[in-house]
C-alpha cells in the first residue's frame, strides 16, 4: 500500500512568510521614512559668511532664514510652530523669510501669518514673495503678513543701523510671476552699507552678483530637491533653482545661500534633505 506523504512541519512555510514580511518592510521603510519622518525632522544649519570690509559693528551679526513654508495641504502648522520656536531660541538679530508661504489655499495665510508673527529679532522680521505666493494672490498674501507686523519687501530696501554700522536689506519681487527690479530695490542704498539681497529663486544670482554692492543673496525655492540621492544629487529641481540648489556658493564678490525650506511641494516626501532653519553669522573676511 502506498504511503501518504508526510504532513509538512510548517517550518519552511514559516521561514518563507517571515522572509516575505521582512522584505516588504525593508522595501516600505524608505518610503515611510520619506513620508512621515524626515519631513518633520527640522535641522539647524549654521554657517559663518566672511564679508570683505565688514564694519566692526556688524561682526557677529546673526541672521535666521526660514523659507518655503507651503502651509496646507501637506505641511501643517505644528511643524511651522516648532520652526518658529527653534528660530526664537537662537536669539537672532534679524529674521528673513524668503517666500512661498502657502501652497494650495490662499486663506491659509491667515493661519500661517499669526504663527510667523511670533518670530522675534532685534532688528525685525522681513519677507519677500515666492512664485506660489504671487501666482496664488499677490495682494491678499502680503496683506496677511503685514497684518501681523511682518515687513514685506517688494522691489524695495530698508537701511538698518547696527551701532555705528549700516546694513542694507533689499528684497526683489518673485522672478517667475512677479516683476523683480533690482535697481528699485537698491534705490535707498547708502555708501558704506553692507547689503543683503532677498531673492526667492537662487539662479538669478547670475545677474544680481554683477552689482558690486551686494555682499550676500539669500534664497529658497528649491527645497533642496526634497529627494537627494547619494552619488546623484537632487532628483527634481524647479526652474531657476537648478544651478544653485542647496547651501553656500560664491559668485565673485557675492555670497549666495539657498535654504532647503520648511514645507514640501506637490510630492510630500523628503529624503536626505530635511527641512532647514538657517543661522547665518556675518564675519569680517577678505
Describe this protein's structure:
- With 286 residues, the chain is an alpha/beta fold.
- The chain has a single domain, classed as Metallo-dependent phosphatases (Purple Acid Phosphatase, chain A, domain 2), CATH 3.60.21.
- Helices cover 24% and strands 26% of the residues.
- It is built from seven helices and 14 strands.
- The chain has helices spanning 11-37, 77-89, 109-116, 131-137, 140-146, 182-185, 205-208, and strands at 43-52, 62-66, 94-97, 125-127, 151-152, 156-162, 165-171, 194-198, 214-219, 228-229, 233-234, 247-251, 254-258, 276-285.
- The strands form three sheets. The chain has a six-stranded mixed sheet with strand order 1-14-2-3-4-5.
- Helix 2 (77-89) runs parallel beside helix 3 (109-116).
- The longest helix is centred in the first third of the chain and has 27 residues, at 11-37.
Amino acid at each position: 500500500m502506498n504511503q501518504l506523504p508526510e504532513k509538512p512541519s510548517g517550518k519552511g512555510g514559516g521561514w518563507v512568510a517571515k522572509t516575505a514580511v521582512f522584505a516588504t518592510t525593508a522595501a516600505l521603510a524608505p518610503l515611510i521614512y520619506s513620508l512621515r519622518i524626515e519631513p518633520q525632522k527640522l535641522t539647524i544649519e549654521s554657517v559663518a559668511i566672511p564679508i570683505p570690509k565688514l564694519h566692526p559693528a556688524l561682526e557677529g551679526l546673526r541672521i535666521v532664514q526660514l523659507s518655503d513654508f507651503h502651509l496646507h495641504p501637506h505641511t501643517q502648522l505644528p511643524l511651522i510652530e516648532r520652526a518658529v520656536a527653534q528660530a526664537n531660541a537662537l536669539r537672532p538679530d534679524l529674521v528673513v523669510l524668503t517666500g512661498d508661504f502657502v501652497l494650495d489655499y490662499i486663506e491659509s495665510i491667515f493661519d500661517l501669518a499669526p504663527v510667523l508673527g511670533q518670530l522675534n529679532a532685534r532688528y525685525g522680521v522681513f519677507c519677500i514673495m515666492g512664485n506660489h505666493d504671487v501666482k496664488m494672490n499677490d495682494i491678499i498674501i502680503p496683506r496677511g503678513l503685514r497684518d501681523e507686523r511682518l515687513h514685506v519687501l517688494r522691489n524695495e530696501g530698508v537701511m538698518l543701523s547696527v551701532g555705528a554700522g549700516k546694513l542694507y536689506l533689499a528684497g526683489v519681487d518673485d522672478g517667475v510671476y512677479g516683476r523683480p527690479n533690482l535697481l528699485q530695490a537698491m534705490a535707498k542704498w547708502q555708501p558704506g552699507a553692507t547689503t543683503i539681497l532677498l531673492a526667492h529663486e537662487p539662479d538669478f544670482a547670475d545677474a544680481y552678483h554683477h552689482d558690486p554692492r551686494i555682499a550676500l543673496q539669500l534664497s529658497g525655492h528649491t527645497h533642496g530637491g526634497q529627494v537627494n540621492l547619494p552619488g546623484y544629487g537632487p532628483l527634481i529641481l524647479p526652474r531657476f533653482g537648478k544651478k544653485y540648489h542647496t547651501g553656500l556658493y560664491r559668485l565673485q564678490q557675492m555670497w549666495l545661500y539657498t535654504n532647503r525650506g520648511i514645507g514640501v511641494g506637490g510630492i510630500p516626501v523628503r529624503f536626505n534633505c530635511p527641512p532647514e532653519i538657517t543661522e547665518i553669522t556675518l564675519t569680517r573676511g577678505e
